[in-house]
Every structure is written in structure tokens, then in C-alpha cells.
Specification:
Rossmann fold, 6-stranded parallel sheet, about 20% strand, about 375 residues, about 35% helix, 2 domains, 13 helices
Length: about 375
Amino acid sequence: MIAFLVGGLTRPQSPAVTADPPPRVLISYFFEDDSIPLGFACRDAFEALGFHARGFHGQAEHRFYRHVLKPASKLLKALSARPVDLSRGTRWHNAAFREAELRRAVADFRPDLLLVIRGNSFDGRVLSELKAEYGIRACVGWWVKDPRSDDQMLRDADSYDHYFCIHTHGYDAASGIHHLPALGVYSRLYRPTVARSESNFVADIVFAGGHGERRERYVRPLLDHDLRIYGPGWRKGRRIFDGRLMRRWAGSGIWGEPLVDMYCRSRIVLNVTSWDPQRLGGQNLRLLDVPATAAFLLTDDTDEVREYFTPGQEIETFTTPEELRDKVAFYLARPEARERIARAGYERSRRLPTYEMRMKALLDAIGWR
């Protein structure tokens, strides 16, 4: 026995105490700079909760598919007027490639918890095999996409030990799906970057989001304003010949720090949900992201919005394209009222749920110990 002297007496040395290693969570979502930062926010939250967290980019494509098979398939589709996928049945096909990449990530990281944010899906058989082979304690799915009228989400949930959804449409308690909002304050990214002043503003209105028929219907009455639209899909089909709309399109995407800076340098940040939130429920991430930058948010009006903000005091809302048009004109003409609301929204955002709270709620719901 090893001993050491203390006050003339020998005392046995206590064995070194080895702390248990932190649990590991692998998060599958978008993990590139030009993508929604929800995955990064959840990864950082798990790290803050004591996990060893790693992100897996579930949107990965093989270079041969991206540069050869994908454009060739698009060309053949245009020539034949029917869907063509030259990668089907090959190892370069999106689903096959992503599943192979996930297998490699799991084998390398050996997670205790696999969180798949939907996102892209994985075959239930693949998830079961990974869980059995690598000792994954729980596979968790989280639907953060728009509501669906078919049973896609219900079928997807069958592949997981636990399943969550950001809205309440399309399932009931018997489905085993639980409601978990994706709304959270991610102050590491979304925070004020410049003082809000007339000298710093570069646009009256900014909208960042992919094209959708509902979004286009709300945006069109604003085309005579100083409006900047960022997002994919706006330059497709008949829209490319619409000069008024194309003059307002500023790019296919804006992400990260440039997006935050654009929020801070715009008089009004517009949010139009791609689905009808009054009928289907749920909110996209801009509801908390924008006020956290101290910018003025003008967004769809729903009961859920009022769980976080008071319209007219901390943000502003609309229900129709005509009301949106009128409120844009009202707040552009009244900068003091607009900036007062923006400041109040920022102060309110500092007291709202963080992603640490959301991930803690997820862990509690699955009985993680």
C-alpha cells in the first residue's frame, strides 16, 4: 500500500476518483455555414448541459452526385418532361450516401443519444441497426418542418424511441408524439450588432425565406417599398419575368452574421410563415431570433405569438396582406413608435426560453438519467 507522511503518521492514500465521462449526443441536422443554425444551437445547449455533443450534416451530398448526376438528371427531366434520377439504386443516391455517412459518424463518435432533427430522414431499419450495434440508448426524432396533411410524420415517428413536433397539427396523444417548440433564444448568434439609427439603416424592409405561394401573396403589396428579399425559389417559373419582384430579390440566401447584421440594419424585419399558422399552429424561428437582435419584427398573428410577446408593444403582427401593407406604411412613417417596440421586444427576448431549456425539456420527456 502506498502511504505518505502527515504530522508524523502514515495514512493510506485514497485511490484516484475517476469521474464518469459525459454522455455523448450526436445531432443530425444542417451543419454548414449557409444553413439554419438550429443544429448549432442545440449542440451548444447540450454542451452547456454537460454532454459531449457533435453535429452531423444530414444534408450531405456526394460530389459525383452534386456535380454530375444531379445536373444530368435535371437536364433529362427538362427534355423528357418526367422525373429522372440517375442516382437511384447507386451508392451516390442521397439516401444511401447519407446513411453511409451516418454509420461512419456513429461508429466514430459512439453516441449515447442520437437526435435526428427533421430535416432529412433515415430508414427505421438503419436506425435500429445502429442502435443495436453501437449501444445507442435512445434515438429521438424532432419534426421541425411545416404541418403535413398526410401521414408522413406519423410514419416517420415509428422509426424512433421518442418523437417530438413543433406544432400540434396532424397527431393526437395516442400517436406518442409530443409537442416541443423549436423557439429558443440563441444569443451566441442573434444579438445586436450595430446601434439602430437612421445612419445605420440600409433597407426599409427585409424578408429572408424560401419562396412559397402564401409568402408571395403577402409580399406582393410591398413591392413599391424599399424591400429586400433573400431566399431560394423566387427566381423560378413565371416569377423570373416579373420585373417588380425581381428588383426586390437580393440573393438566394443570407446566413449567420450577415443575416444578423441585415436584421439590425433594416427598419422592419418581415416574417411570413410558409404555412398558415392560424389554422395549423406552430411558429418558425424568426419569432425569437429577430427581437433578440433588437430589430423590429412584423410577423403573422396567432395565439401562440402571444405566449412570447405582446403585439403592438414588443413586436407587431398582421393577419391579411392588406393589414400587412397598412402596418408597414404606418411604422415606416413613425420611427419613434417602431423603435420603442423594437427595444421592448429585445428586453422581452432576454427573458424567454433558451435552447438549454428546450433540450432540458426534451431530456426530461424521454426520462433521461
